[in-house]
Amino acid sequence: GAVVSQHPSWVICKSGTSVKIECRSLDFQATTMFWYRQFPKQSLMLMATSNEGSKATYEQGVEKDKFLINHASLTLSTLTVTSAHPEDSSFYICSARAHWDRSYNSPLHFGNGTRLTVT
Amino acid sequence: GDSVTQMEGPVTLSEEAFLTINCTYTATGYPSLFWYVQYPGEGLQLLLKATKADDKGSNKGFEATYRKETTSFHLEKGSVQVSDSAVYFCALSTEANAGGTSYGKLTFGQGTILTVHP
């Protein structure tokens, strides 16, 4: 149980275009979803937190107009990288907290990540 | 702010060797501590966790003890297998609040690549 599906697993796009990444909880309701970015040989950096039906909370230094997050339903969150540039190339990972996990010390469930390359 | 520091990798071991991956943290408040593992081509998954001082988390032969006095949560396994080859992430979670909603915010270490040879 607690499967998170992330699509696409990899995407190549041209500079200036926008890319949408989907994160779905397949067998549970995700009240909270988190989006992370991972640079090579570096840690996962939290970009934003989204709760279903409300605006995402972005971490300091993350451009909210560049990284649009929508959590329209209890099973789907999307991250749209707008007007992508080569420096946005990275590995993006979503994770979700299940509706039965009320505590902050409950584990998160992760998608397999999306490798974005902007040419 | 919160931070997690892991020993640098990669770590290369022979099968049945003893494994230690060091992890230390700084946090405001009283964090919960986790080890996540990422197998090749897969997403991160929880390996073990501990939520209070002196707790020992264990799973699949791996262990880690929450040491508040040394702010550490080192991962150990007595005898590694080839199938343990993966990237291991130490992480902490503290309670955070936004818009009236409480949630746990995970802070990760940089990850340690483990390769086990037959």
Coarse shape of chain B? globular
**What integer value in Å does the Rg of chain A equal?**
14 Å
Q: How are helices and strands ordered from N to C of chain B?
A: EEEEEEEEEEEE
User: What global shape of chain A is seen?
Assistant: globular
Distance between the termini of chain B: 41 Å
If you average the pLDDT of chain A, what whole number results?
Answer: 90
Give the percentage of residues in beta strands of chain A: over 45%
Count of helical segments of chain A? 0
Number of strands of chain B: 12
Largest interface between protein chains, with number of residues from each side: A-B, 28 and 30 residues
Q: How much beta of chain B, percentage-wise?
A: over 45%
- Percent of residues in helices of chain B comes to under 10%
Tally of individual helices of chain B: 0
Unreliable residue stretches of chain B? none
Helix content of chain A: under 10%
Element pattern of chain A in H and E: EEEEEEEEEEE
Oligomer: heterodimer
Largest sheet of chain B: 6 strands, mixed
The number of E-state strands of chain A comes to 11
Cα Rg of chain B: 14 Å
Low-confidence stretches of chain A: none
Structural account:
The complex is a heterodimer of chains A (119) and B (118). Chain A has 119 residues and is an all-beta fold. In chain A, 0% of the residues lie in helices and 53% in strands. Chain A has no helices and eleven strands. In chain A, the strands form two sheets. In chain A, strands 2, 4, 5, 6, 9, 10 and 11 form a seven-stranded mixed beta sheet that branches. A four-stranded antiparallel beta sheet of chain A has the order 1-3-8-7, with no helix packed on it. Chain A is globular. By secondary structure, chain B is mostly beta strands. In chain B, the strands form three sheets. In chain B, strands 2, 5, 6, 10, 11 and 12 form a six-stranded mixed beta sheet that branches. A four-stranded antiparallel beta sheet of chain B has the order 3-9-8-7, with no helix packed on it. A two-stranded antiparallel ribbon of chain B has the order 1-4. Chain B starts with a strand and ends with a strand. The chains are: A mainly beta (119), B mainly beta (118). Chains A and B meet through strand 4, strand 5 and strand 9 of A and strand 5, strand 6, strand 10 and strand 11 of B.
